Amino acid sequence: MALQITTLAERPELxxxxxxxxxxxxxxxxxxxxxxxxxxxxxxxxADYVLVADDDAEPGRLVARACMIPFVARxxxxxxxxxxxxxxxxxxxxxxxxxxxxxxxxxxTVRRDLQGTGLSSQMVxxxxxxxxxxxxxxxxxxxxxxxxxxxxxxxxSEYAFRTxxxxxxxxxxxxxxxxxxxxxxxxxxxxMVIAGTLxxxxxxxxxxxxxxxxxxxxxxxxPVHCDVEQDHAVYVEPNVWVCHPLG
Length: 247
Description:
Elements: E1 3-7, H1 36-39, E2 50-55, E3 64-71, H2 82-96, E4 102-110, H3 119-133, E5 138-143, H4 156-159, H5 172-179, E6 183-196, H6 198-205, E7 213-215, E8 224-227, E9 232-245
């Protein structure tokens, strides 16, 4: 497979296929209210920060995508509300005409049938190159560890810094970033907040949500907080800030 990675701005004909990939994202994750500040305009306003990958076997059929957003940091510490924060900051900067001084990765999605083939590492490398080509001195990423969902009650502050005997992170997705040159900086304890009625959570997950308390949801990194009397449930997802120096 000869992989071709370009920006969506270079290949706008792939815009219609961008969200049609067979992926493994859970439905509830797609209902973060901040997401539309980026994704609703990703193919137009941010086409130069969306990377698309296809191969010579099936030209035009996406095998992976990667999304980034430039935002305003002004030298401040990476925010506790990681993913949501950089999307808000990036969109406000664009709307106000403020020049961004930082860039954050948002996601890498690999087609379901090609997961585990090393494509994610190639997309991380492509994001690093693209950020450097745009003049940024580092790429930051609020990383969603790939197997944290198997330990929803383990604090992220413990999980994120767990290592193997060789010193690399225990988590496979964090390992990809570290091997690419990234450094784990800190936990973003409320990187994404998803709230909904109990009916919405039942639709998103197929679970009953009929008892007040912590609900373990497949794919969630933390339990979801359910309040039957108030008819709502709230999921607060922690991520892990990783910094990729580009100098």
